[in-house]
Design goal:
Elements: H1 3-14, H2 21-29, H3 33-49, E1 55-56, E2 58-63, H4 89-101, E3 106-111, H5 117-129, E4 134-138, H6 144-153, E5 158-162, H7 170-176, H8 183-195, E6 199-202, E7 205-206, H9 213-225, E8 230-235, H10 251-269, E9 273-276, H11 278-283, H12 287-293, E10 298-299, H13 306-309
Parallel strand pairs: 1-10, 2-3, 3-4, 4-5, 5-6, 6-8, 7-8, 8-9, 9-10
Helix pairs in contact: 1-3, 2-9, 2-10, 3-10, 5-6, 9-10
The structure holds S-adenosyl-L-homocysteine (SAH).
S-adenosyl-L-homocysteine (SAH) binds at residues 72-73, 110, 112-113, 138, 140, 163-164, 166, 205, 234, 236-237, 239, 279, 314-315.
């Protein structure tokens, strides 16, 4: 292994945030098998040092109704291909109960982005009625008032919120979203969540068309600057019905980059929860388990009822994965 990579890993093992952005980029572009193996081993060592244990959260995708038109997403507002659904409170409570019976103490509620009183009240009612100790919400950008109402409704439960920034590059952000989407508004929402004491997570897609290695290195620095509690990221997977298509990187490259991003995020941030995403598993069977050995420690098995699963296709191949 080259002296400089060896030194980078040694420094990373001494303290958190001890890797300069240029070395993060150097590691991300390095394809030397022995360097990558050492990177993965170092990330695993940090996971152990920080006593990261495997956390499981039952994922429930309760609605695919979305007001946004993100250029990469299969459930975007303009997607002509899907039937829109919205689970009832009773259905949602039942699925949560099933997860609990299977031993889950945490659920993750995900859906399209809707800003309406009906949606706010629905989530509020669910949060106050569900009998599960830990809940993650992934329901997009909302007003401070809405975030506060949900926090109040979940009193006595541990509440987390995952809102991906998608990319920390403002330029790339504007290329993968329609003009009405605002990077600053999304970042503002992440900061709002933190200030309201949510356990806050964010993340990015890896291998987007036009994404540079430097952008990915900057994403890791962004996670540190925003002092995130969780990071959820995964490879970009092109979806037929969307305007954004060919990724810059092959599927093998996106898989490798995603694993390196997970390992480097663990090495850079140390004590943070990192999700091993479903999208990894779509690219390669078993990849989610590999991610758990190179820095990730959260897994989110899908509990969305079968009849809805096909309609929640953020990207192809997703619905086959439990
Ligand atoms: N709308 C909600 C959550 C639903 S989308 C929210 O904003 O939080 C959840 C995540 O799926 C997105 O944040 C995005 O990072 C990811 N995603 C969407 N389309 C994708 C694609 N084609 N490939 C990979 N990931 C995708």
């Amino acid at each position: 292994m080259s002296i400089s990579f060896k030194r980078t890993l040694e420094c990373a093992l001494e303290a958190p945030r001890n890797i300069p952005a240029r070395d993060l980029a150097g590691m991300l572009s390095c394809n030397d098998k022995s360097v990558v193996a050492d990177l993965f081993a170092a990330a695993n060592e940090v996971s152990k040092k920080c006593s990261k244990v495997l956390l499981k959260r039952a994922l429930i995708e309760f609605s695919n109704i979305c007001s946004r038109d993100c250029y990469y997403c299969g459930i975007r507002k303009s997607s002509p291909l899907i039937n829109r659904y919205h689970m009832t409170i009773e259905e949602l409570l039942k699925v949560s109960e099933e997860a609990k019976e299977e031993g889950f103490t945490a659920i993750a509620l995900q859906g399209g982005e809707i800003e309406s009183e009906a949606n706010t009240a629905f989530v509020e009612e669910f949060l106050s009625r569900v009998d599960i100790p830990e809940i993650t919400l992934s329901l997009g950008e909302q007003t401070t008032d809405v975030y506060k109402r949900w926090k109040d409704a979940a009193k006595g439960k541990l509440l987390r919120y995952l809102l991906r920034i998608e990319t920390s590059s403002t330029e790339l952000f504007s290329k993968i979203h329609p003009p009405e989407a605002s990077f600053n508004k999304r970042l503002g929402a992440i900061r709002k969540l933190k200030s309201l004491d949510y356990i806050t997570g964010s993340g990015v897609m890896i291998g987007l068309p036009g994404q540079a290695i430097d952008d990915l290195a900057n994403d890791i620095v962004f996670f540190g600057d925003e002092k995130l509690d969780m990071v959820g990221m995964g490879p970009y997977i092109p979806c037929d019905s969307t305007p954004l298509q060919a990724p810059t990187f092959s599927s093998q490259e996106r898989l490798e980059l995603s694993l390196k991003m997970i390992a480097l995020t663990r090495l850079y941030l140390w004590d943070v929860n990192i999700v091993s995403s479903t999208a990894l598993e779509v690219l390669s069977s078993g990849a989610r388990d590999i991610a758990l050995r190179v820095g990730a420690n959260v897994i989110m098995p899908n509990f969305t009822p079968n009849k809805y699963r096909l309609e929640y296709q953020l990207y192809p191949g997703k619905q086959q994965i439990k």
